[in-house]
């Protein structure tokens, strides 16, 4: 870059301006990366907590279902009374320009109340139903967090590449260009100063 730019004061000012903008861009990208990393680490911790709760809830739910099957026999007919849940919705929120999903399940009584008759069930089946409902809600939340972590990680990777490019390539290149142009202008000034001294000396000699 330095060799292709004519060493003029205008080009020196333009290059210094580009250098300053590069520094500002680096600081902004560095700040964005730090915010995204902090957000992602919090979500990773949250995802681990949700996963632990899901595992424990699944264990309880299958244990309760097993007890219900022992007491009631295979609960296929009762299971078929559970309505299909189509209350899932996905919206988005922005964190430093990264679109993160917000997954929600509609908290409708239709999906929370026990759909089968109480006379044909027992406490174990009711407990299994409640626990599987809890797992469903937690799974939606886990999907939201895991997808957000994936998107944040991808954005952090892109931001890191741009930050490294500015720090290791763009900024050093502009610094070098400023140095080359400044040295060339200083050399021109010295040559002009020397030329003016020679001209003045010649004029004195002629006088």
Task: Describe the structure in your own words.
It is a single chain. The protein is mostly helical and 207 residues long. The chain has a single domain (2-201), classed as Helix Hairpins. It is built from 4 helices and 2 strands. The chain has helices at residues 9-72, 76-79, 109-112, 123-206; strands at 88-95, 98-105. A two-stranded antiparallel sheet has the order 1-2. Helix 1 (9-72) packs antiparallel against helix 4. The two termini are 48 Å apart. The model has no long low-confidence stretch (mean pLDDT 85).
How is the secondary structure organized here?
Layout: H1 9-72, H2 76-79, E1 88-95, E2 98-105, H3 109-112, H4 123-206
Antiparallel strand pairs: 1-2
Helix pairs in contact: 1-4
Strand order of the largest sheet: 1-2
Number of domains: 1
CATH topology: Helix Hairpins
Judging by the overall fold, what is the CATH architecture? Answer: Orthogonal Bundle
Main sheet properties: 2 strands, antiparallel
What is the CA-based Rg, rounded?
A: 35 Å
Tally the beta strands: 2
Could you give the order of the helices and strands?
HHEEHH
Mean pLDDT: 85
Strand content bin: 5-15%
C-alpha geometry: rod-shaped
Catalogue the unreliable spans: none
Structural class: mainly alpha
Q: Terminal Cα separation, in Å? A: 48 Å
Helical segment tally? 4
Classified by CATH, the class is: Mainly Alpha
Helix content: over 70%
């Amino acid at each position: 870059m330095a060799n292709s730019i004519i060493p003029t004061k205008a080009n020196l000012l333009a290059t210094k301006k580009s250098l300053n903008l590069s520094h500002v861009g680096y600081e902004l990208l560095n700040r964005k990366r730090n915010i995204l990393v902090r957000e992602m680490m919090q979500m990773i911790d949250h995802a681990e907590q949700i996963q632990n709760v899901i595992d424990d809830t699944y264990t309880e739910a299958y244990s309760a279902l097993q007890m219900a099957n022992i007491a009631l026999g295979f609960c296929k007919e009762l299971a078929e009374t559970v309505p299909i849940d189509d209350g899932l919705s996905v919206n988005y929120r922005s964190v430093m320009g990264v679109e993160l999903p917000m997954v929600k399940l509609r908290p409708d009584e239709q999906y929370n109340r026990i759909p089968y008759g109480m006379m044909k069930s027992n406490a174990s089946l009711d407990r299994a139903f409640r626990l599987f409902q809890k797992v469903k809600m937690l799974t939606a939340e886990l999907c939201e967090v895991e997808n957000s972590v994936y998107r944040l990680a991808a954005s952090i990777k892109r931001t890191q590449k741009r930050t490294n490019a500015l720090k290791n390539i763009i900024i050093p290149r502009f610094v070098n260009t400023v140095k080359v142009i400044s040295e060339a202008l200083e050399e021109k000034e010295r040559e002009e100063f020397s030329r003016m001294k020679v001209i003045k000396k010649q004029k004195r000699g002629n006088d």
